[in-house]
Amino acid sequence: MSALRSIDFKVFGRVQGVFFRKHTKEQADKLKLVGWCKNEPDLTVTGVVQGASSQIDTMMRWLEKTGSPQSRIDSCTFCNDRKVDKTEFSEFTIRRKKK
């Protein structure tokens, strides 16, 4: 089994109102990654992905270069890249504002 990793991300550009979170969840599910993403007040999307290291690398490239069809990614930052013994989440979710 591949080593498990966790990494935090923040995506800048036109990433809200273009189904970016929906496509991020679909990509994470496809790669069998867990974690979450959410819209931020500064119009970015932030989140955490956890899973097999090789799949994390694929997801990082997707977040930097692909995104949703209508998005425009100006940049993507990653931090808190670390090995984990087990994932903290059971699935990848979209976090929404509480009403």
Features:
alpha+beta, single chain, globular, five-stranded mixed β-sheet, 2 helices, 99 residues
Amino-to-carboxy terminus distance? 41 Å
Question: Number of DSSP strands?
Answer: 5
* Rg estimate, integer Å: 13 Å
Q: Roughly what is the average pLDDT, rounded to an integer? A: 94
Tally of alpha and pi helices? 2
Question: What is the molecular shape?
Answer: globular
What about the largest sheet? 5 strands, mixed
Q: Provide the β-strand percentage band.
A: 35-45%
Order of helices and strands: EHEEHEE
Strand order of the largest sheet: 4-1-3-2-5
Can you walk me through this structure?
The protein has 99 residues and is α+β, with helices and mostly antiparallel strands. It has 2 helices and 5 strands, in the order βαββαββ. It has helices at 20-30, 53-65, and strands spanning 4-14, 34-39, 45-52, 72-83, 92-95. Strands 4-1-3-2-5 form a 5-stranded mixed sheet, covered by helices on one side. A hairpin with a 5-residue loop joins strand 2 (34-39) and strand 3 (45-52). The chain starts with a strand and ends with a strand. The relative contact order is 0.34. The model has no long low-confidence stretch (mean pLDDT 94).
Secondary structure topology:
Layout: E1 4-14, H1 20-30, E2 34-39, E3 45-52, H2 53-65, E4 72-83, E5 92-95
Parallel strand pairs: 2-5
Antiparallel strand pairs: 1-3, 1-4, 2-3
